[in-house]
Amino acid sequence: MDLLVKNGRVIDPARKLDAVTDIVVRDGKIQLIGTATVSGIPVFDATGLIVAPGFFDIHVHLREPGTEEAETIASGGSAAAAGGFTAVAAMPNTKPPNDNPSITHYILSEARRSSPARVFPIGAITKEQKGETLAEIGEMFEAGVVGVSDDGKPVMDAQLFRRALEYSLLFDLPVIQHCEDQHLSKGGVMHEGVYSTRLGLKGIPSAAEETILARDLILTEMTGSKYHAAHLSTRQAVEMVREAKARGLRVSAEATPHHFTLTDAAVADYDTNAKMNPPLRSADDVAAVVEGISDGTIDVIASDHAPHHINLKMLEFDSAPFGIIGVETAVGLALTKLRLSMTRLIELFSINPQRIMKVAPWGLFEGSNADLTVLDLNRNWTFDVNQSRSRSRNSPFHGWPMKGKAVATIVGGKVVFEDRV
């Protein structure tokens, strides 16, 4: 695809670029960054807008194969593009799980066919995500996975997790852990605290996250491997990652918008759209997550987009599944709720995700894939979950007013989403 992106504020922190200029795209690649007088190709007028390297959500559940009533690769990719993401990394908890190259190949093939956003599969650490035997990590890497994780099923066996770290090191793949001691969290449905006591719901203590994270950091130091902590939610967890980085460990971490915007008070009326894992925690924990994002302890903002069919979320709180949709609100919530420079925001949504995952990097340089996210910092809008491109509607952010929005998403020089007023 050919395209001229005209007169935008072009920002790429990795290349120390911040200038009002043009971008010429030929055959899906950036040919030129600079004042251009090209004719005969489509023009995207970016006057007054930010043009950034394509945003990359590294924690998304696309549900296909197996649970297409909740989401498909096509619908999840469309929702991601509507949220400003040119690429997503798909977690392996499909049915069957992505624990072998045949599933990896299927996801990649279907993504090429139907998704407007690029899709990078994440493979399972263990076969069937059972935490018993290592999956075919080497073969999945050859097939195209960009990381390994058992996602919501933490690897409880320390020896097995050590082997996963060591084996993944051969391919420089990040090992992504959902930090949860399932003995401490067993039966819990929300954060253990004042609200769980008041509501009569079994709580998940902060220690459930922190004990597994502590073990994993010890093993990461032992092996020298590349470790990524998913969706940090507690003050102590943030501090542990901060200390590990200071010691030089190859550790990275992500936070979700719901963990920097909501507390466990959101569960007060038994709203299952506020049920997630890790659970919404205390105001002090939220403040710590925000601090971690601001000071660089947390590397990435990821949505943990987890669609569920409405019938499941309508069950009583104890029985409803964990998770919310999030790809369409992540950027807007970050722009609205966090006081960050544009450089830092782009690092969190684009530069750092690319650095952490095993992907060929893109950015604003000649020869790069023309994957661009276009932001309007002054756009006032309200999220209407009923207009979501996802197949599911499980969001606690319906009706939330926001300021700042991804108004266009460009993948390979093609405008795959546009919402301009």
Characterise this structure.
- With 421 residues, the protein is α/β, with parallel strands linked by helices.
- Helices cover 30% and strands 22% of the residues.
- The chain is built from 13 helices and 18 strands.
- The strands form four sheets. Strands 1, 2, 3, 4, 5, 16, 17 and 18 form an eight-stranded mixed beta sheet that branches.
- Helix 7 runs parallel beside helix 8 (235-246).
Mean pLDDT: 97
Q: Classify the secondary structure makeup into a structural class.
A: alpha/beta
Helix content: 25-40%
> Largest sheet, described in full?
8 strands, mixed
E-strand count = 18
The radius of gyration over CA amounts to 20 Å
How far apart, in Å, are the first and last alpha carbons?
25 Å
Q: Are there runs of 5+ residues with pLDDT below 50, and where?
A: none
| General form | globular
What is the overall number of helices? 13
Strand content: 15-25%
Summarize the structure.
This protein has helices spanning 73-82, 101-114, 137-143, 158-169, 182-185, 194-199, 206-223, 235-246, 257-261, 283-295, 310-313, 330-337, 342-356; strands at residues 3-12, 17-26, 29-33, 43-45, 50-53, 55-60, 85-90, 118-121, 148-149, 175-177, 190-191, 203-204, 227-229, 251-255, 300-301, 372-382, 401-411, 414-418.
